[in-house]
Amino acid sequence: MISINEVRDMLLQILEVYTPSGKEWRLHEPLREICSRLGYENYGVDKVGNFIAEYGSGRTILLAGHMDTVPGRLEVKVSNDEVWGRGAVDAKGPLISMLLGAAKAKDDVKGVKVIVACLVDEEREGKGANYLVSSGFKADHIIIGEPTGTIGVAIGYRGSLTVRVNVSASGGHSSAPYMGESALDKFLALWEEIKRNFSGRGYDETSACITVLEAGDWPTKLPEFVRAIINIRIPCNVLSKQILSKLEELCLEHGCELSVLERTEPVKVSLSSLVPRSLIRGMLKIGMKPKAVMKTGTSDMNIMHRISQDIAAYGPGDSLLAHTTLERVSIKDVLTAAEVYKNCILELASISQI
Amino acid sequence: MVKVTCPICGGKLDIPEDSLPGELFEHEDCGAHLELVINEGRFELKLAEEIAEDWGQ
Fold this sequence. Notes:
The complex is a heterodimer. By secondary structure, chain A is α/β, with parallel strands linked by helices.
């Protein structure tokens, strides 16, 4: 039986290790210690640095969280019931919940193999999840560890298309901008068109934003170049190639160069699938009122859907705090989510017995 | 499985016999999101809360 103080200490232990994408190896040793304390006997690191803990044999239930965070160190501290730090919500809190929940299920579960995979690179290109897909990893049921407010079951994520736009122009003197040609003006005209076409404000619409913008190099020169990165999020009824086709058309019209940096299709599963149903039942059994949610973002669920279509995401934490300086997670929510993961595993295992 | 009437379109859904009150279902025929209620041992469906939006990953 793990005490609330031990859970707090586990959270502090992994939050104190700064793991922006590429530095996930720093968590391997702390995770070995945590797995040992929780009674796992089988754990290790795969070829791309994913940390994997497992037990049992039979139909496979995979719980997949991620070790990396976005960049930016934050102070790690405890305040009342909450643990603060980069990754508290996205997604080290869910990761600890998964390890706890799977450990709790271990003695009561039969006829299934349970794997907790702590993946690399989720915040960048999904290298960890992509490796599982390309290496032929098999799982029958997948639970993705991401924050869903502790009571939400995420049955869908938007897709993502990230493009680089380069623009060049002949420039001019800033004293007579009307006589010259500004690359930034060309880009801004393109951006107005992109905004007009992709002005969505919800999970079921397409939205776009500029995430990187460089322009110009001198206070009295019209910019001769623009280098920009634009990220577009794609709802479930749209394919990335439709969006790309429109972007190519607009870039051609405005004399801008386009190249694709990343492309991920949206994903949506049925509420009646075994994993969402087991998560919901897992919450109902401890008196919670679950709800179904659709995510505006993109996650490893978009990739791992290729391994099993019986998949959903769940975890403790307020997703609004992810990627902010106010990131924190309630220890009570981490424990509640662990109970839900445990119940979900037991539900899925009982189905496997039939 | 138990056949239960959709309160929105009147069609039928197959609900697993071991379903718990509060479980959520989607009626594929009309797209309604429904919640199970057990009334004196009888399965009934009511309109559930709309699928909510959640942000980020």
